[in-house]
Design goal:
Radius of gyration: 24 Å
CATH superfamily of the largest domain: Glutaredoxin
Shape: elongated
Length: 245
């Protein structure tokens, strides 16, 4: 029997771990995806070269609410799976004692957000909804705990006067005024569709998108582009109705 012990200090991706295991054992396992990372000291510090926002839970085995909290962390990690510059991590400091000394940890569980080399402690409620909101506020994101973009994503307030003017009397004049504006593509596309059809087209498009969302398989979420389009369409509808246009 071979009792040789190998220490893994490679990357944190499942592909890296599976490749290492296959190399050491000759066995090939199925890839199990998880958005909640479990780095060691070395790989955790490597994240700072890859991500601008890193939210980490440091905990000990004796913590009685460990499983519930880890589940909330998994939900939080899943919420940011589409954000390539955000990482959510859990670190059992009984396994990696060096974290005790690196951060002078005196109390656990400890929640820490590192944003562009700034360290911010999180002391809010221990649920995914509040943790997602916290990360959003410091990392300039707009995620819900379900992983979708929230209802404000894609909305640009400075465009409101132009949209109102357009809804009053649709013409290419207002559309052209947005051509040089950053992030105006969705607004321009919607205005073009209104010119091709009529103002009431926005209701039909909103209904069509909602039907698409409702028809998604369980566990699936709309694409970010679809959410942004739905949000901007909803903004057009709100401005039309609020201003009685």
């Amino acid at each position: 029997m071979n009792n040789q012990v190998h220490i893994y200090d490679g990357g944190m991706s499942h592909d890296s771990l599976n490749a290492w295991l296959a190399n050491k054992t000759g066995l090939i396992g199925n890839s199990v995806q998880s958005n909640l990372l479990s780095p060691n000291n070395k790989t955790w510090h490597q994240l700072f070269n890859q991500k601008s926002c890193i939210f980490t839970l440091f905990y000990e085995d004796k913590f009685k609410e460990k499983e519930e909290l880890l589940n909330e962390m998994k939900i939080t990690a899943d919420a940011f799976q589409r954000e390539k510059d955000v990482a959510v991590c859990e670190i059992n400091i009984h396994k990696f004692r060096s974290f005790f000394f690196d951060f002078k940890i005196r109390k656990t569980p400890r929640f820490q957000l590192n944003v562009n080399n700034e360290e911010i402690l999180y002391e809010g409620h221990r649920n995914a909804k509040d943790m997602v909101s916290f990360i959003n506020s410091y990392c300039d994101k707009m995620r819900t705990e379900k992983g979708t973009l929230n209802q404000n994503a894609g909305i640009i307030e400075e465009f409101q006067p132009t949209v109102i003017e357009f809804l009053k009397s649709p013409s290419e004049k207002q559309l052209k005024s947005l051509l040089t504006k950053e992030s105006a593509n969705v607004y321009i596309d919607i205005m073009k569709s209104i010119l091709d059809h009529d103002v009431n087209w926005i209701y039909k498009e909103s209904e069509r998108l909602q039907h698409e969302f409702d028809a998604l398989p369980s566990g699936s979420i709309p694409s970010d582009d679809e959410i942004i389009r739905f949000n901007v369409i909803s903004e057009f509808i709100s401005l039309k109705e609020d201003n009685k246009l």
